[in-house]
Structures are given as structure tokens and as C-alpha cells.
Write a sequence for this structure.
């Protein structure tokens, strides 16, 4: 007899021995807790979009209350649709449309002004809800959601950013995996940026409860928040454009100051703080612009003062060649003035004095040059 | 030679199912979820439509109190929830217990069908008439759901294409007997791996008859449950898919059940499932293959799903053919002196070497992922259960061929409340009867 015939029985015996132990295991009949929560583990990715597209392609032929569109779709304004919409691409809905159902798209979605959607809006791409829209369901996306002014939405849910315009209303819940940006924050961000990038609407209402912006920008904000925005006239537009021009020039003069200094000796954080210091007039303003802890900013400023880039009032001070050559880094501006000047030194000092005179003029009246 | 050809064909069929289950297992481990699954998780609790929960019950006095207690504890807003218990011709105190709860809680309603007893589908069809919810969920009387299960099950309906959802069934009384342990393994394999994979792979998860729900308009469109089918849940799944709806599976929407504990109950349950599936296969296979809006992969998967209970019969046939080959000493590609012995032995274990290896691998992986590693020792026992299934399915096929029985009576397992009697508050077991007594009985 071939001994190999015993092999399956040996394997079976090995397999079933633990089974026998388990069968005759002592049973525990005590009370048991039922877990109230479960955990869901994310698994690595294997793309199934091809299968999804195949299914969606096949589903297009189904008739019923779901209107399925392959590819991108654009719905003209003043259209009423009495179906759910499923679009395998981008969807753009025109102005004043009425969709009696939900909208689902695999691409970006844009709902036109004053449109009404009686259901939900789902998308894998960006969703833009234009002004005066009414969405009576949930707006959900895997990317950003933008809700413009006066739009009304039941709830918002996304893994990325939600941007909410002025007077937009979300009745229930906002779920954002990243950040929620309101129109106030956007206005502040635009003012801090270069003026060319800003577009200030005179009709924009900005609710200012606390002055988060440093004092130098206060007057601008005061103008940006007119008490009666509904009564804007041509005069208001002129005032705003004039102010806008002044702010632009003011920022230009300040931003050019950084180009005069050689920042090679500074670390990236020091260079960043230095540039902000040129534009700012106080430590608080610098902290707000940098969004850093004041103690950190103070440490960096102290370092810059020691290196001679700033004085004790955080004003810019161009470090001279003499300071770099001389081995004693602790010299301050005051000690330099006390030393006897050589001819070349006097010329440089004179140049420095001219620069400092210009700087002092600017600090006295920042708007003078803009007039 | 003829026998060799038959074996080869059967081998190929088993290979197809092997590949199917291997793909399912791989997908569960490494697959990416379908679109909007993350959306559903975020939206759970935000999307709050009106929901009706249908609970058909026939002689469930030992368990119905637990379930109704649980319904009162659900976190879903009660003003948007209604629970309708259908007392279908019960001869015990099920109706009285339900009435007590209905008197106390306004969102619980009871429908008495004294002339009922005609099966679950009929009870559910009657129950739909009294529902007012936009979403209709179903639950068997012996189940014990999670507190936030309604929010989780309802979330996928945000997608207008979704017509039905299915949650997960977890066995709670696995320690009762070896049978309950085996059923636990099978449940884990079926839900944690099988259903999850079908959802991830953009296939068709199956509505399992409980812990699931439908969009009301979808249910009305397909005409509700079919009384003529033994497995009305599978039948409803196919009919919904043929109407173009999607079915989604929500793995973390768990409900706990009391499984069968005896071999006789196991046989009865599996017999009904096998016969019902075969009924569905004969009814729907042609429509599935002809459906213009099912993708090719979906058609293949639905075909394999409908024919899955024929596979044990094929294996039984393969065994017989193997034995016949041995007896007739037929020349095969495996012929040699040693191989003949192996051919005889392996013909008995063909299922475990080819056909059932991947389902066992599936069950093992599911148990591992569920952190129930001690159940892995029981995997070899599934060989015997497959042996039982082979004979069970053969009997089901013969009975189906000879008779045309519909689902006109209740085919449920006797429950003694042990499955969800372990989870009373403060860790103390309180039988259902005492609740009724406290309520002034």
C-alpha cells in the first residue's frame, strides 16, 4: 500500500483537532454587551470608477422619474424639470429654473441664480449655488461648496471647504472637513492682498461686530460697510473708487520698501516677518497679518533688531556695510552715530539720513503721497 | 471519457464561483468604496425624512417586547418615525404586548390580522397600506437594532437612484451551540465580505428580508412583496434592479439576531432559502439576461447570485461522477496507480478543494476582520455544512419541480428570546413577560 494515501487523513486530522476543542469548549452563558457603535476602517484604494461608469451608461436607458444624462449638461434658464436629474458629467443649471426632484452629478454643479431645487444636490465635484437660490434639501459634495449671497439651503455637507456669501442661509447643519469661509473673512483676505486683486462691491454688507482688522485698515472697512447699502448712487461709487486708488498707492509704497533690503542673511521666517513689519505699524498688526503667536513674532523681531534690520520701534533700518564688516554685531544705530565718521561713512550716513527722513514723512502721513 | 467531460464542465463552473468569491474577498480587503459612500456617512443624521418601520410578527411573545423597547430608544426623531407592528394571526400574547406599547407610545401602531397567518409577504403588503413614511424599513420581530440604525439606513436615500438599502445582521447567540457558531460564520461571510464587496464593486447587494428598507415610490412601483415566492426578499431585489433602482449596503447599520441552534432548524431554514432562490432563478433569469439597462458585469453577477443554490447540487453530481469513474476505472488525465486513490478521496472533498475553498476563505477573512478569531477553528466544519447543503438543495430542487408552493404560511424559527435577552440594562436579564406585568397586566 502506498503510504501517500494516509496524507489526506493526516491533514484532515490536523484541521479538525482544533475544531474538536472548540466544540467541547466550556460555554460562557453570562450576560453579554451589545456594542452600540461600530468602527469603519478605511481600506487602500482600488479604483472602481470604470465599473460605475459602465453601470451608469447602462442605466441611461431606464425610464421613470430619474432623468439620466451621459456627459455634461447645461439647462437653459426658466426651465422646469419634474424629475430627478442624474448627470454623468458637469451640470450647469440656468437662472430661475425649477427642479422638482434631486440633482446628482459626477462632475461640477452650478445652480443658476434664483433657481429652486426641491430635493438634494449631490456631486463629486465642486458645487456652486448662485445667489437667491433655494435648495430644499442637502447639498453634498466631495469638493468645495460655494453658496452665494441670499441663497437658502437646508444643509451643507462636504469634505472640503464651504464658502458662504452674505445673507446666505443654511437652515440646519454645515458639515465641513476643511474650513467654512464666510463673506467677512473673504473681504478681509482681499484687503490684505494687493489692491489689483480686490473687487469691492459697494452693495456688500459686512457685519462687523468686532474690529479684527488693524487700525490702519479701519477707515477702509468703515467705508466697505455702508449703513444703507440699498441706496448706493454714483457718488458712492466714486468715493469707493477714490479710496481704492489711495489704498493701492499706499500699499505700493510700502511694498517697495522691502526691495531696498538684502534679505539673504535672514531665515525664511525672519524675512517674512521683516516684510510684514515694513507694512505694519504695530506688533498686533503684524501678528494679525502673520497669524502667528505674538511671543513667536516678538522673538523673531528681537532677532531682527539684533541683526540691525529693525530698530526698537520695529521700523525698518537698512544695515550698513560697516556693520557687516565690523566684528561687533551689538552696535546699534545710536552708537554708530557717536563714532567719528570718515568721508565715505558720512556719505552713506547722509544717504541713510535721507532715507530715514523719507520714512519718517511716510509714517506721519501715509495718505499724503496718495493725494 | 463522457464522465471526464462532465467533471471538466462542473470543474469550470466551480472555478467561476471560486473566482467570484476570491474577487469579493480581495475587494473587501483592498477595494475602494463606491461614489457617495462617504457622503452617506456624513449625511447620516442630517437627512431626516419620515420613516415607517414595518415589523411583521407571528407568535413572537418572547422577543417582541425587547424589540419594541428598542424602538422607543432609537435616536431618530420620534415625530418623523412610525413603527407599525403587524400581528399576523398570532395565537399567543404577541398582540397584547404590542397593544400595551401602542397605548403608551404614539408613534407605535399595531395592525391585527386575526385571519392572517398567511405568511410574511401578505402581512407586509397589508402593513404598507397604513404607512405614511417616505422611507419604509422592515425588521423581523426577533431582531435587536442599533440605536442609530435608522439614520444610517436612511442616509443612502439622498441619492435619487437608490431604491433600497440593506444593513448588516449580526448573530448574538453564537455560544448557544455549534450550529449557531456555524451560522455566525456564514453570516459574517455573507454580510461582511459578500454584501460589502458587491456594494464596492458596483454590483447588486441583496435585500435580505430584514434590516433593510425601500423608497416608498419604488416599492409601490414594483407592487410590493410577492406572496408566491418563498424568498420574497430576493424576488423584490431583482424586481427593483430590473426597474433601474440601485440597492446599497450599509455595513455599519447593524442589527442583532437570534440564530437557529439545532440542525433541524438549520435544515428547514436552508431548505426554504434554496427553494426560494431557485424559484427566483426560474422567474427572473431570462429577464435579467435581457435587461437593456444592466451592465454586462451586473448580468453575470445576478446570474451567479440566482444560481448559487444550484452549485451544491453540481458538487453532489461531481462526487457521484468521481465515484463512478473510480468504479469503472475510466481513463482520465489523472490516471495512475496512486492517483486513483486520490481521485476517490478527492471526489468526496471536491467541494473543499475547489468549489468551497474560496467561500471558506471568505468566511475566515470575515471572522478575522470582525475580530472573532476563535471562530476560525470552526472553518473545517463548514465542509459538513456544505455536505448538508448539497442534499438540502437537491431536495429543494426536486420539491420545486414537483410542487408550486407559494409563501402562504409563516416559516420562521421558534425564538426563546436568548439572542437579545443578554443585553438588558444593568446587565440583568429581564424576560418579556415581566415587562407586560409591570405595565399593568
Amino acid at each position: 500500500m502506498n503510504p501517500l494515501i494516509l496524507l489526506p487523513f493526516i491533514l484532515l486530522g490536523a484541521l479538525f483537532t482544533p475544531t474538536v476543542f472548540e466544540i467541547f469548549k466550556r460555554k460562557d452563558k453570562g450576560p453579554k454587551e451589545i456594542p452600540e457603535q461600530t468602527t469603519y476602517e478605511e481600506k487602500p484604494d482600488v479604483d472602481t470608477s470604470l465599473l460605475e461608469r459602465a453601470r451608469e451608461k447602462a442605466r441611461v436607458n431606464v425610464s421613470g422619474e430619474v432623468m439620466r444624462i451621459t456627459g455634461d449638461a447645461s439647462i437653459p434658464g426658466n426651465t422646469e424639470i419634474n424629475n430627478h436629474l442624474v448627470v454623468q458629467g458637469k451640470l450647469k443649471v440656468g437662472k430661475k429654473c425649477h427642479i422638482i426632484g434631486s440633482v446628482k452629478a459626477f462632475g461640477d454643479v452650478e445652480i443658476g441664480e434664483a433657481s429652486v431645487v426641491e430635493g438634494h444636490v449631490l456631486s463629486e465635484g465642486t458645487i456652486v449655488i448662485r445667489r437667491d437660490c433655494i435648495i430644499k434639501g442637502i447639498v453634498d459634495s466631495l469638493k468645495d461648496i460655494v453658496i452665494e449671497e441670499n441663497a437658502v439651503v437646508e444643509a451643507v455637507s462636504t469634505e472640503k471647504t464651504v464658502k458662504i456669501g452674505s445673507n446666505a442661509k443654511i437652515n440646519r447643519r454645515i458639515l465641513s472637513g476643511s474650513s467654512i469661509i464666510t463673506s467677512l473673512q473673504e473681504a478681509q483676505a482681499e484687503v490684505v492682498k494687493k489692491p489689483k486683486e480686490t473687487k469691492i462691491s459697494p452693495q456688500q454688507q459686512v457685519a462687523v461686530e468686532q474690529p479684527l482688522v488693524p487700525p490702519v485698515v479701519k477707515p477702509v472697512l468703515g467705508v466697505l460697510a455702508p449703513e444703507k447699502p440699498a441706496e448706493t448712487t454714483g457718488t458712492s461709487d466714486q468715493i469707493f473708487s477714490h479710496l481704492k486708488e489711495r489704498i493701492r498707492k499706499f500699499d505700493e509704497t510700502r511694498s517697495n520698501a522691502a526691495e531696498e533690503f538684502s534679505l539673504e542673511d535672514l531665515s525664511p521666517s525672519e524675512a517674512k516677518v521683516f516684510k510684514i513689519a515694513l507694512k505694519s505699524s504695530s506688533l498686533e498688526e503684524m501678528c494679525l497679518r502673520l497669524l502667528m503667536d505674538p511671543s513667536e513674532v516678538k522673538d523673531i523681531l528681537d532677532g531682527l533688531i539684533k541683526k540691525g534690520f529693525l530698530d526698537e520701534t520695529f521700523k525698518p533700518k537698512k544695515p550698513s556695510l560697516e556693520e557687516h564688516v565690523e566684528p561687533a554685531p551689538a552696535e546699534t544705530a545710536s552708537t554708530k552715530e557717536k563714532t567719528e565718521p570718515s568721508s565715505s561713512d558720512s556719505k552713506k550716513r547722509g544717504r541713510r539720513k535721507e532715507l530715514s527722513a523719507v520714512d519718517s514723512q511716510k509714517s506721519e502721513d501715509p495718505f499724503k503721497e496718495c493725494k | 471519457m463522457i464522465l471526464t467531460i462532465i467533471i471538466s464542465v462542473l470543474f469550470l463552473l466551480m472555478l467561476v464561483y471560486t473566482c467570484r468569491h476570491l474577487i469579493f474577498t480581495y475587494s473587501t480587503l483592498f477595494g475602494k468604496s463606491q461614489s457617495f459612500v462617504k457622503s452617506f456617512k456624513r449625511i447620516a443624521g442630517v437627512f431626516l425624512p419620515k420613516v415607517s418601520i414595518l415589523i411583521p410578527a407571528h407568535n413572537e411573545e418572547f422577543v417582541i417586547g425587547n424589540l419594541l423597547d428598542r424602538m422607543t430608544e432609537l435616536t431618530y426623531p420620534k415625530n418623523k418615525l412610525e413603527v407599525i407592528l403587524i400581528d399576523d394571526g398570532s395565537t399567543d400574547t404577541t398582540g397584547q404586548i404590542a397593544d400595551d406599547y401602542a397605548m403608551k407610545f404614539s408613534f407605535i401602531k399595531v395592525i391585527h390580522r386575526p385571519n392572517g397567518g398567511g405568511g410574511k409577504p401578505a402581512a407586509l403588503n397589508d402593513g404598507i397600506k397604513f404607512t405614511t413614511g417616505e422611507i419604509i424599513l422592515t425588521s423581523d420581530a426577533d431582531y435587536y437594532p442599533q440605536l442609530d440604525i435608522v439614520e444610517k439606513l436612511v442616509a443612502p436615500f439622498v441619492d435619487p437612484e437608490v431604491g433600497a438599502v440593506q444593513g448588516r445582521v449580526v448573530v448574538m447567540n453564537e455560544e448557544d451551540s455549534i450550529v449557531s457558531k456555524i451560522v455566525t460564520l456564514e453570516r459574517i461571510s455573507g454580510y461582511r465580505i459578500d454584501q460589502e464587496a458587491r456594494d464596492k464593486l458596483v454590483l447588486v447587494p441583496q435585500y435580505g428580508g430584514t434590516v433593510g428598507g425601500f423608497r416608498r415610490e419604488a416599492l409601490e412601483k414594483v407592487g410590493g412583496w410577492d406572496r408566491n415566492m418563498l424568498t420574497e426578499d430576493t424576488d423584490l431585489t431583482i424586481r427593483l434592479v430590473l426597474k433601474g433602482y440601485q440597492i446599497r449596503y450599509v455595513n455599519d447599520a447593524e442589527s442583532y439576531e437570534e440564530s437557529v441552534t439545532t440542525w433541524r432548524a438549520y435544515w428547514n431554514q436552508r431548505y426554504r432559502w434554496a427553494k426560494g432562490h431557485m424559484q427566483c432563478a426560474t422567474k427572473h433569469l431570462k429577464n435579467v439576461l435581457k435587461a437593456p439597462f444592466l451592465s454586462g458585469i451586473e448580468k453575470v453577477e445576478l446570474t451567479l447570485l440566482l444560481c448559487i443554490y444550484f452549485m451544491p447540487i453540481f458538487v453532489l453530481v461531481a462526487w457521484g461522477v468521481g465515484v463512478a469513474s473510480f468504479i469503472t476505472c475510466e481513463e482520465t488525465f489523472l490516471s495512475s496507480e496512486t492517483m486513483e486513490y486520490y481521485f476517490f478521496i478527492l471526489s468526496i472533498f471536491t467541494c473543499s478543494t475547489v468549489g468551497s475553498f474560496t467561500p471558506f476563505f471568505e468566511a475566515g477573512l470575515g471572522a478575522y476582520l470582525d475580530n472573532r478569531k476563535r471562530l476560525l477553528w470552526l472553518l473545517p466544519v463548514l465542509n459538513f455544512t456544505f455536505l448538508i447543503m448539497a442534499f438540502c438543495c437537491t431536495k429543494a430542487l426536486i420539491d420545486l419541480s414537483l410542487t408550486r408552493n407559494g409563501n402562504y404560511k409563516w416559516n420562521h424559527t421558534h425564538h426563546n428570546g436568548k439572542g437579545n435577552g443578554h443585553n438588558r440594562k444593568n446587565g440583568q436579564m429581564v424576560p418579556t413577560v415581566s415587562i407586560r406585568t409591570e405595565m399593568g397586566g
Chain A has a mean pLDDT of 69. The first strand of chain A starts at residue 66 and ends at 70. Residues 71 and 89 of chain A are 5 Å apart (CA to CA).
